[in-house]
Amino acid sequence: MKNIGEAPQEELATGERSTRNRVARSILDHGPSTAQDLANRLGLTQAAVRRHLDALVADEVVAPREQRVYGARTRGRPAKVFALTDCGRDAFEQSYDKLAVDALHWIEQSAGGGAAGEEAVAAFARARIEAQAGAYRDAIEAVQPEERTQALAKALSADGYAATARSAPLPQRGEQLCQHHCPVAHAAERYPQLCEAETEFFSRLLGTHVQRLATIAHGDGVCTTFIPHGAPPQTTHQQASASTAGRNPA
């Protein structure tokens, strides 16, 4: 992988470049992060982290933004977080995105375009998910129900999605599945059927109606899916409605 924030040797020592890559990788693995978050995870001072962040911002690898708050907002100014830009994500091996977009465009046009073309892309997206389903099903069937979201996150990480699971903020009762990396983000930006098929699959896999709260493809720093606790198995109607959750509601 190309070094992120790479500069001429006389301007940037190897150790500095390596640390800068670690900062960017930590944002990829954990999502938009504050300087304090990064300092804690990497064992660095905030001053050191901010120096690397300034360089990454200058190189357009990361960009600052206000921290997105779910639920009740606390007093005071929201903390500044740093998220990877498209340029930053490109450095983490997204070189096949153009090929994917070209292939999906061919599928769409071969089906006649319009609604028929959109459905052809959706059918491909569902088939693609099903082709990968075995490992995910094995992962969650091997654990207790309360451990399934965590097991799914681990299986997704093995496929390059850098996924984590955590308790959802109150007053929600459930968990948030967070995918901090999307290998097909650019393709999903053009063809949201990829996100929609994934959301439908999560619903079927976990036996409950899930809600997609945010997606990298629509400009969010992380793909976030809410998985409720104690929800009854979803109906066929709910499964169908889940397909719209791939589109960012914001």
TrEMBL record:
<feature type="domain" description="HTH arsR-type">
    <location>
        <begin position="18"/>
        <end position="62"/>
    </location>
</feature>
<dbReference type="InterPro" id="IPR050313">
    <property type="entry name" value="Carb_Metab_HTH_regulators"/>
</dbReference>
<dbReference type="InterPro" id="IPR001845">
    <property type="entry name" value="HTH_ArsR_DNA-bd_dom"/>
</dbReference>
<dbReference type="Pfam" id="PF01022">
    <property type="entry name" value="HTH_5"/>
</dbReference>
<dbReference type="InterPro" id="IPR036390">
    <property type="entry name" value="WH_DNA-bd_sf"/>
</dbReference>
<feature type="region of interest" description="Disordered">
    <location>
        <begin position="228"/>
        <end position="250"/>
    </location>
</feature>
<dbReference type="InterPro" id="IPR011991">
    <property type="entry name" value="ArsR-like_HTH"/>
</dbReference>
<feature type="compositionally biased region" description="Polar residues">
    <location>
        <begin position="233"/>
        <end position="250"/>
    </location>
</feature>
<dbReference type="InterPro" id="IPR036388">
    <property type="entry name" value="WH-like_DNA-bd_sf"/>
</dbReference>
<protein>
    <submittedName>
        <fullName>Helix-turn-helix transcriptional regulator</fullName>
    </submittedName>
</protein>
